[in-house]
Each structure stands twice: as structure tokens, then as C-alpha cells.
């Protein structure tokens, strides 16, 4: 049913992604009243040089 796309900076471990996917799935099943097996979580790892906020690349921030 729900597909959740998560865009995050690259470098997060599989353990962290697993924990976050579980938390998103748990919240989705509670709020949307659906089965865990119907919840998809897709992680997209983004390089800091490919993401800008306020016109400034994240790779150029302190």
C-alpha cells in the first residue's frame, strides 16, 4: 500500500536504515491501519555535493 521514499545523505549504515525502516513501517501500520508487509520504504542515498539548501551545496557547509 504505502511506498515511502527517504532521501538522505550517503554514509548511513544498514543498521540505521533498518531501524528507520522499521520505525516508519510501525507508524504506517498504526496510522493507516495496514499490514507491515504492504509498506515499502525506499532509501535514496544522496551525495552532499548533489544537494543544496538556500543556494548552498551541503558539501560546502561547515
CATH class: Alpha Beta
Task: Tell me the major beta sheet.
Answer: 2 strands, parallel
CATH superfamily heading: Macrophage Migration Inhibitory Factor
- Strands, count: 4
* Content of β-strand: 25-35%
Shape verdict:
elongated
Category from helices, strands and their pairing: alpha+beta
Protein name: 2-hydroxymuconate tautomerase
Subunit structure: Homohexamer.
Function: Catalyzes the ketonization of 2-hydroxymuconate stereoselectively to yield 2-oxo-3-hexenedioate.
Organism: Pseudomonas guineae
Can you give a write-up of this model?
With 62 residues, the protein is an alpha+beta fold. The protein has one domain (3-47): 2-Layer Sandwich (Macrophage Migration Inhibitory Factor). The chain is built from 1 helix and 4 strands, in the order βαβββ. The chain has one helix at 14-32; strands at 3-9, 40-46, 52-53, 56-57. The chain has a two-stranded parallel sheet with strand order 1-2. It is elongated and about 40 Å long. The N and C termini lie far apart (40 Å). The mean pLDDT is 97. Its EC number is 5.3.2.6. InterPro entries: 4-OT-like_dom, Tautomerase/MIF_sf. It catalyses: (2Z,4E)-2-hydroxyhexa-2,4-dienedioate = (3E)-2-oxohex-3-enedioate.
From the structure above, extract its key features:
62 residues; alpha+beta; Macrophage Migration Inhibitory Factor; two-stranded parallel ribbon; 1 helix; elongated
Short description:
Homohexamer. This protein is of the alpha+beta class and 62 residues long.
